[in-house]
Amino acid sequence: MLYSRHKVEVIELLDGISKRVTRTPRPITTIVTNNVFQGNINVDSLVFKREASDCSEHVLIPPHSDERLQAMLSNTGEFRWFYQPFLPFLRSLGEWRVYVLGGRPMRVVRTIWQEVEGMWENEIVTSGYSLEEIKK
Predict the structure, then answer these.
(1) Positive or negative, the Cα torsion across 106, 83, 92, 14?
(2) pLDDT at 55 over 80
(3) Cα 107 from Cα 99, distance rounded (Å)
(4) Strands 95-101 and 104-114
(5) Which residues pair with 98 in a beta bridge?
(6) Looking at the predicted structure, is the pLDDT value of residue 97 above 60?
(7) What is the H or E stretch that residue 17 is in?
(8) Which of 47, 91, 94, 127 could form a cystine bridge with 112, CB 3.0-4.6 A?
């Protein structure tokens, strides 16, 4: 399975690791259904993402434009939309992704918000702390 196209399955695997191994909190992920806007759901407290997307092409971060939100979510097909709570520190810390091939990490990419440009930018991470250093 090409996991990069099936984000929901990757999230389920990470949730399992978080629950059983690291015992660390994870954001709750909900697959978008037709009733996403019914009830007391504040869409401006959510991040929407779509499977098989890259370069922030199908990511909606608050505040949302109603038109863009409706247009993107109406784009149904083979891949699912899902949402997670918006964590404000996403803009300051960015999103970290580790690309693994054959069980070995090949590349780490950090997507960070560029306030001046008003857009997200990817940077390849070439250095950092090892897990052993972090544990200390």
Answers:
(1) negative
(2) no
(3) 5
(4) antiparallel
(5) 108
(6) yes
(7) helix 7-17
(8) 94
When pLDDT is cut at 50, 70 and 90, the band that residue 4 belongs to is low
User: Secondary structure of 43-100 in the HEC alphabet?
Assistant: HHHEEEEECCCCCCCCEECCCCCHHHHHHHHCCCCCCCEEEEECCCCHHHHCEEEEEE
Cβ contact 72:60 at 8 Å: yes
The 10 Å CB-count burial string (b at 16+, else e) for 76-109 is eeeebbbbbebeeebeeebbeeeeeeeeeeeeee
Which has the closest alpha carbon to 54: 1, 128, 118, 3?
Answer: 3
Q: Contact, 42 vs 83, CB < 8 A?
A: no
pLDDT band at 2 (very low <50, low <70, confident <90, very high): low
Backbone angles phi, psi at 112, to 5 degrees: -125, 150
In angstroms, the CA 115 to CA 35 distance is 33
CA distance 89 to 58: 20
> What global pTM score does this model have?
0.71
